[in-house]
Design brief:
The protein has three helices and six strands; from the N terminus they run H-E-E-E-E-E-H-H-E. By secondary structure, the chain is α+β, with helices and mostly antiparallel strands. A hairpin with a 4-residue loop joins strand 1 and strand 2. The longest helix has 27 residues.
């Protein structure tokens, strides 16, 4: 049996979690990063016109919101941290603990579920002018702590994929 790497573990754990939104994992080898992208949708009122940050106006009664989270090596990765909803450092040689990824998936479910609800409100209520999703780092840290206190934190590391 081959050993799981970070991508394998992320993919299998996210699949097992039965997340109720679209997601994908992309390994950007040259940047030494792994991106997890998620997408949510909302149906809008027919007369509601919504413009995104790039100036694109919805042409159908559906809007789509996409964001990404990045796992990166602070020593080797050349990325703009502000381009992501959240960023998680790992060591290129040592990898990352499975428990950290498990806590990430739990928080991702919560953040995106709340975001989906907020997007539906935004899409149907013309008094709400902006929409954005926020990652709550304090809640994430609390989730890790709770996993450790309840012995659900897996200390085993998964390695960054080999080229």
């Amino acid at each position: 049996m081959t050993k799981q790497d970070m991508i394998d573990y992320l993919d299998s754990s996210m699949s097992e979690a039965n997340l109720e939104f679209d997601w994908s994992i992309e390994w950007k080898k040259r940047l030494n990063v792994i991106e997890v992208t998620f997408t949510i949708y909302a149906e809008t009122e027919p007369e509601l016109v919504i413009q995104d940050v790039e100036g694109t106006v919805n042409t159908e009664n559906i809007i789509q919101f996409e964001d990404a989270i990045c796992f990166y090596d602070p020593e080797k990765s050349k990325i703009i941290l502000d381009d992501y909803l959240a960023v998680f450092p790992f060591d290129l040689k040592k990898g990352i603990e499975k428990g950290y990824i498990d806590a990430f998936i739990k928080m991702l479910r919560i953040v995106v579920t709340e975001g989906q609800s907020d997007l539906l409100d935004f899409a149907t209520d013309s008094t709400i002018e902006t929409f954005e999703i926020e990652w709550n780092q304090a809640n994430f840290n609390h989730t890790i702590q709770t996993f450790k206190e309840t012995n659900r934190y897996n200390m085993e590391k998964v390695q960054y994929p080999k080229f």
